[in-house]
Amino acid sequence: MSAPDLSGPIDSHCHLQSLPPEERERALDAARERGVKGFLVPAIKLDEAEEILAFCHRHPDVWCSLGTHPHDASSWKEGDGERLRSLLADPKAVAVGECGLDFYYDHSPRETQLQVLREQWALAVELGLPVVVHNRDSNEEMLEVVREEAFRDLQADFHSFAGGLDMARELIARGFYLGFTGMITFPKADNVREVIPILPPGRCLVETDTPYLAPVPHRGKPNRPAFVVEIAERLARETGETYEQVCRRTGENFFRLFKKAG
Fold this sequence. Notes:
alpha/beta; 262 residues; TIM Barrel; 8 strands
């Protein structure tokens, strides 16, 4: 297998399944025209997994993570763990998720969120796959689960990280990766940018979280994978690297974490 092309960024988190089918293709084409080299599509619920996998199989530069988002944790039912295990056998499924906790919206009961999180993380550890983690207004509860012995070997991407310095330090110490979205371009998002100086070069990913969190100068528009270019450019400004250096190292990080994509 030839080495991946890392001359442009990889969008490590884009919900392309949220777009109409024809718009998905246009979004990919527009991103490729700007030099974006890969895309990871995270599932929100298991019922969309087959559609996401079929989409990924049509594109050699697109992969997915499969799981259940905390907003949809109440939809998790008996047998879904085995169903997820079967889906993850697909070569295009490179991670578990998007899974996690969201105590801001509380669309599912908190205890249900915690139960579904633990079940998905346990499966990820068993299968040797990383997890794509959603965390909002749940730092302490999330860290309590992270510290459990059952998850000592967990591999994780804490996507769209905005958890602050203290949480970042603990996650970094555990070997986890942090994903940066368009928030690093927001004028008031110092809580996101302050993490960049303490983050080891080998633990950083860039992502759009399409269709949310469009970066400056696209704020107010639906986000698209093409805009990961602005995120990588801003990260380069913050670190003093060149854009090309950021693309290469975050791309290397992507393939180190999501080994099945390599």
